[in-house]
Design goal:
The structure holds two protein chains of two kinds. Chain A is mostly helical. Helices cover 74% and strands 1% of the residues of chain A. Helix content of chain B is 36%, strand content 28%. In chain B, helix 5 packs antiparallel against helix 6. Classes of the chains: A mainly alpha, B alpha/beta.
């Protein structure tokens, strides 16, 4: 019961903070409308170029056009969800700690990590989310995918833990700023490795493949789980790997974060 | 209520040579040293007291406040407030305190002020009835009504400070920490803020810890002061005690007929004084001499002055608290409190 009450409070606060951020966005009307239009244009162009590129590649290392679209679309979903909810972690590495603005989270009676992430609701992520869903829905009829309850469950599990891989990596690298004051570029470097995950990892050489599979395991956010649904494979590895990588990275991230909070030095005055 | 024992905070600091070259050198071969910002400070504050924390810039005031509010973890020593250790029981502890940093704001910058209060209400789990009553009270003492619908970014500094203080008091905290709450404000707003703090302290027995550079704050509000410099405690007691202990400093003011004749006055040689024992100021309208009545009896300095110059007017007064504190900051002697 206590846990249930706590969860209710978390969701309630989450909703209130999201509303707050949407109000903030709409406070500046011209900027808001321009941003929304720009987002639509950017994602439109994105889809357009993807269709050009993929129409030139009938197959890639044995993967058919539709299968590549499916993997690419799948890759966008966890990235978008993470982007939507935890974008403020970038600000931790860039300026929140360096300027001492972290003080205010520490004087409030809510978990600091929750307080930081919940403060920003990154609506830009809807662009990636829409494109991801679009790509998945165009490719599903032409890939060999059986839609049954088990697969749906595995899909949801894969999505959740793939998102945690993103969040975990951002969390660990952003937390470094508690000691170094600034770590935005470290986050950027690790984060950009996700670009490799949108394509079948079999097209890379062994070194790259090892890095994106086991060291910075972005392959588990897209290629491994997505290929399980369309080409089969060992679910313990393809989906289980995602669960393990997501859990380990997230746990490590929370640990480093809390160590970092006690090492936090604030800033003058 | 508040117990602080041998509290200490050290920071590691990288030392760099000047310029880009220094930065490059330090990048590859950093040199660090340990800076002690707060050095074994102890004090105790009973419930309902207003304690003034004073000291020159960089004395370590904010660092102490940040340790007491759970923002920084002390290097050693301990502090306990309401039976809780700030950096250990942070979440349950901060529910019972209010914090205002005059140089920062916790308000939602882009939104109307009242939006901040509705979110804080949720964060601190204040129920509707209590919230309504509280807002009415805060509105009465801090006069928020005139700007509660304005976006925070459009508030003047005085309004923003009142709004921030209200935000820190929404959940009826037992202890209120105010770090330079009157910084940059005009005399009227300062006065309003002092009255509000006093009212809250009296109505609710709220313990207040306040840092300031404005000694009017101290004289009007504080039951007691703790003075620190270079991380150590210099003085701990009430204002009348401060005046009694360090109040021997006096000011001799006179208006001579001939300002050039003042040149002939050489107090330091006459009374055999060091550089810092006496201060002479001649602004062309009057001459002010600050001295300590322990080292030079008032009679002697008057006799000497009158024997060398002809004066239109002359008087001797007690130095005010500002002068006393200036003297203590300047002399940098560690006084055992």
């Amino acid at each position: 019961m206590k846990i249930l009450k706590k969860l209710r409070r978390v969701f309630r606060l989450h909703r209130i903070f999201i509303k707050q951020d949407l109000k903030r966005l709409m406070e500046y009307k011209i900027d808001f409308v321009t941003g929304a239009v720009a987002l639509l244009i950017a994602q439109g162009i994105n889809v357009f170029f993807l269709s050009i590129i993929f129409s030139q590649i009938p197959n890639l290392d044995g993967w058919a056009f539709e299968q590549i679209i499916f993997i690419y679309g799948f890759a966008l979903l966890p990235k978008a969800i993470d982007h939507l909810f935890t974008d403020n972690l970038w600000a931790i590495g860039h300026f929140i700690i360096r300027k001492g603005d972290f003080d205010k989270y520490l004087t409030r009676p809510i978990n600091t990590l929750f307080a930081v992430t919940v403060e920003k609701f990154q609506v830009d992520a809807f662009g990636e989310l829409i494109v991801g869903i679009l790509l998945l829905s165009v490719s599903v009829p032409s890939v060999n995918l059986s839609i049954n309850p088990l697969n749906i469950l595995l899909f949801v599990i894969a999505l959740v833990f793939a998102t945690l891989i993103y969040t975990g990596i951002k969390l660990i690298t952003s937390s470094v700023a508690f000691w170094t004051k600034r770590s935005g570029n470290i986050t950027y470097m690790f984060y950009m490795v996700n670009e490799f995950s949108k394509y079948p990892t079999t097209i890379y050489n062994r070194a790259v493949r090892a890095v994106v599979s086991y060291i910075i395991p972005f392959a588990f956010t897209a290629f491994f789980p997505a290929s399980y649904f369309i080409a089969g494979g060992n679910p313990w590895f393809n989906i289980g790997g995602t669960v393990i990588a997501g859990s380990v990275l997230m746990a490590l991230g929370i640990l480093v974060w809390h160590k970092g909070v006690s090492a936090y030095e604030s800033a003058g005055s | 209520m508040i117990y602080v024992n041998n509290l200490k905070k050290e920071f590691k600091k990288t030392i760099k040579d000047p310029g880009l070259k220094g930065s490059v050198k330090s990048f590859f071969k950093p040199k660090t040293e340990i800076i002690t910002a707060v050095d074994n400070i102890s004090f105790h504050v009973p419930r309902g007291e207003i304690l003034g924390f004073i000291g020159p810039n960089g004395a370590g005031k904010s660092t102490v406040i940040k340790m007491l509010t759970g923002i920084l973890t002390p290097t050693s020593g301990s502090c306990e407030i309401n039976g809780k250790i700030p950096y250990k029981n942070r979440k349950s502890y901060v529910k019972e305190i209010g914090v205002v940093f005059g140089q920062r704001t916790q308000l939602w910058w882009d939104l109307a002020l009242r939006e901040t209060y509705t979110v804080l209400k949720e964060i601190y789990e204040v129920d509707d009835a209590a919230y309504k009553k509280r807002m009415a009270f805060l509105n009465e003492v801090l006069e928020l009504d005139e700007f509660i619908t304005s976006p925070v970014r459009t508030l003047s500094l005085g309004q923003r400070m009142r709004a921030d203080i209200a935000a820190s008091l929404l959940h009826s905290p037992k202890v209120l920490f105010l770090d330079e709450p009157t910084i940059g404000l005009d005399v009227v707003v300062k006065d309003n803020i002092r009255k509000a703090v006093k009212a809250i302290n009296e109505n609710e027995q709220t313990t207040v810890i306040l840092t300031t550079h404005d000694l009017q704050d101290v004289e009007n509000l504080c039951d007691r002061i703790v003075m620190i410099d270079k991380g150590s405690k210099l003085f701990d007691g009430n204002i009348s005690e401060l005046k009694r202990r360090f109040g021997q400093s006096r000011e001799l003011r006179f208006v001579p007929y001939d300002f050039a004749a003042v040149e002939a006055l050489d107090y330091k040689t006459e009374f055999g004084l060091g550089e810092d024992d006496l201060e002479l100021e001649n602004d062309g309208h009057k001459v002010t001499v600050r001295f300590n009545s322990d080292t030079i009896p008032v009679e002697n300095i008057l006799n000497y002055t009158l024997s060398k110059t002809h004066v239109k007017d002359i008087n001797v007064t007690d130095a005010d608290i500002e002068e006393i504190i200036k003297g203590i900051y300047r002399s940098e002697v560690k006084l055992d409190a």
